[in-house]
Amino acid sequence: MRLVVGAALVDSLDAPTRLLAARRSAPPALAGRWELPGGKVEAGETPQQGLHRELREELGVAVELGEEVRHPDGAWPLTPELEMRVWWAVLTAGTPAPLQDHDELRWLVRGRWLSVDWLPGDVPLVTAMQAL
Ligand SMILES: Nc1nc2c([nH]c(=O)n2[C@H]2C[C@H](O)[C@@H](COP(=O)(O)OP(=O)(O)OP(=O)(O)O)O2)c(=O)[nH]1
């Protein structure tokens, strides 16, 4: 099982109102669907280190991580081969730009966090986040 890490990038850790969604540009099977920015953890990295690296590469930003958005079993199942862990995050430097892997970014207002076409594995996750 390969671990994917994602950021629930919001405007405030205490009272989040806006959530950043990113639209994938590749591969063809996933292009056009929305996800949380992030990616696969590499050998020798902690999940948090991998998440900081992915956010720097994909969006050109630095963040502060908050609490983990926990799944009761430890990680959110994505596919038979992939599972994801997610942390709340706020920007500390930079403005997110679709530098890599994405062709559009969108801040979603709370109450409308499910208004984009998320990758299927993200729907239960974003539903749980919005209910917190
Ligand atoms: N980043 C991210 N990936 C997700 C989410 N939901 C979801 O099903 N995935 C899937 C899509 C991909 O199959 C996988 C993440 O792989 P990726 O291709 O983004 O990883 P990566 O940037 O490390 O790229 P690579 O090493 O595969 O080239 O997880 C999500 O919310 N965020």
From TrEMBL:
Per the record's keyword annotation, is Iron-sulfur included, yes or no? Answer: no
Question: What is the name listed in the Swiss-Prot or TrEMBL entry for this protein?
Answer: 8-oxo-dGTP diphosphatase
Q: Where in this chain does the record put each Nudix hydrolase domain?
A: 1-132
Source organism of the structure? Kineococcus radiotolerans (strain ATCC BAA-149 / DSM 14245 / SRS30216)
Q: Which reaction does it catalyse?
A: 8-oxo-dGTP + H2O = 8-oxo-dGMP + diphosphate + H(+)
One of the GO BP terms on file? DNA replication
Which family does the record claim for this protein?
Belongs to the Nudix hydrolase family.
Task: Could you list this entry's UniProt keywords, alphabetically sorted.
Answer: DNA damage, DNA repair, DNA replication, Hydrolase, Magnesium, Metal-binding, Mutator protein
Cofactor dependency: Mg(2+)
One of the entry's Gene Ontology molecular-function terms is:
metal ion binding
Matching Gene3D superfamilies: Nucleoside Triphosphate Pyrophosphohydrolase (3.90.79.10)
According to the record, the segments passing through the membrane are: none
Q: Tell me if Acetylation is a UniProt keyword of this record.
A: no
What EC number(s) would the UniProt record show?
3.6.1.55
Q: Which domain of life is it from?
A: Bacteria
Q: Which PROSITE patterns would you find in this protein's record? A: NUDIX (PS51462), NUDIX_BOX (PS00893)
